[in-house]
Amino acid sequence: MKNKNSAFASSSELLLDLDALRADTPGCEAVVHFNNAGCGLMARPVLQTMLDHLTLEAAIGGYEASAARAGEVADFYASLAELLGARAGNIAFAASATHAYTKALSAIDFRPGDVILTTRNDFISNQIAFLALRKRHGVRVVHAPDHPDGSGVDVDAMVALMRAHRPRLVAVTHVPTNSGLVQPVAEIGRHCRELDLLYLVDACQSVGQYPIDVEEIGCDLLTATCRKFLRGPRGSGFLYVSDRVLQAGYEPLFIDMHGARWTAPGYYRPVDTAARFEEWEFPYATVLGCAAAVRYALRVGLEPVAQRTPALAGRLREQLAAIPGVRTLDRGPAPAALVTFAIDGWEAEPFKAAMDARSINSALSYREFAQFDFSDKEIEWCLRLSPHYYNTEDEVDAVAGAVAELARSAR
Fold this sequence. Notes:
By secondary structure, this protein is an alpha/beta fold. The protein has 2 domains: 18-41 and 301-409, Aspartate Aminotransferase, domain 1; 50-299, Aspartate Aminotransferase, domain 2, CATH 3.40.640. It has helices at residues 18-23, 44-60, 62-68, 70-84, 97-106, 124-137, 155-165, 185-195, 214-217, 243-247, 284-300, 302-321, 348-357, 371-377, 393-409, and strands at residues 32-33, 91-94, 115-119, 140-144, 169-173, 199-202, 221-225, 237-241, 260-264, 267-270, 326-328, 339-343, 360-361, 363-366, 381-385.
């Protein structure tokens, strides 16, 4: 029997104590937070960890505080390695998922004519980075088509493109920011391994929402943030680097004294671990907050989270779809906890402001965030609602009710 005073699931049951989880989450008292795909609400242990370290820095000095907390800092790598099924040496801290992603791209020696094979639903910043590489290095950006049934990228078509182009890089966003689509990253990974292709996965919206196993995915590189479904602080992310990539000698374009050793006046040697992708300066309170957030997620349990969070989104999506004037936009057989919809009679900013006025946190997405997807759906903008495991069914119903009220007011 699970301890009723514990917020965490036991190994024998996929149950969560919502009262305890919400008591751990101060923000639940003020807002209905359905913007976890933007930032999750931090739990008290995460907040306290960061405050304690800042207090220590103020008391004894920044260098001295980081030295005193060296074991806890090391747990950032150990906890993420446990979360991803990796080694601590495969993990690098980054200031954001985008920072991690561009570090990874910078390690690839792109040449004119090289192909980056990606999807039509990859994240906006990734797409812009690919175009920047095309502009500077003359690479070709090839987008695999979507499957006609709306289940995501057409894997067979993508594999045909792999064989035809032998891309320098295959890059896929697991869960796009602009919808609840879940891409078949493990299936794609199996083909990348068979063809010996470098594979980069953006897991920004899936880490903390689903169990992630880098070996099962078969990726060489994986990036994510800590601020979303992991419920860590802003200004934090990480890069997973496989042993294969480390042993092949990949290193970022600009490597500093943390990632390399200056072995002679004209030579340097990268360190053996993913630390070669880091810089010397760290926001240590943030790093410790991330470690606390990952440990919290591990104690809650990713299996119950992966059941509850998409189920809450499904309940919301079903209710929104029944509202006249509202069109839900998410595709795929099992959408993630990103619920997107268009609504008749409203402009973007006024509609979000109306939701804000009801203490409902949400996010807007615009066509420029997803040029292919939004062109297909013939929309200029949508609202994104993203519940998490600590939200309640009553909150889902209240949010759907608020959207119904606003939809009626526009008619």
